[in-house]
Amino acid sequence: MEALTTLSPIALGFYGSLAAGLMTSVGAVPVLFGSTPSRKWRDISLGFAARVMLAASFFSLIIPALDVAEIRYGDGAIPALIVCVAILLGMGAVAIMNEVIPHEHFSSGREGPEAASGVTT
Question: Which superkingdom (predicted)?
Answer without folding.
Answer: Bacteria
